[in-house]
Amino acid sequence: MEIKVDIGVFGGSGFYSLLSDIQEIHMDTPYGQPSDKIAIGTFEGKKVAFLPRHGKKHEIPPHKINYRANVYAMKQLGARYIIGPTASGSLQARIKPGDFVVTDQFVDRTWGRNDTFYDGPEVVHTSVAKPYCPELRKICIEAGKSLGITVHEKGTVVVIQGPRFSTVAESRWFSGMGWEVINMTQYPECYLAKEMGMCYANIALITDYDVGLEGQDDIEPVTHEAVLKVFQENNEKLKGMLFEIIRRIDVSKDCGCCK
Question: What residues act catalytically?
Answer without folding.
Answer: 208, 210
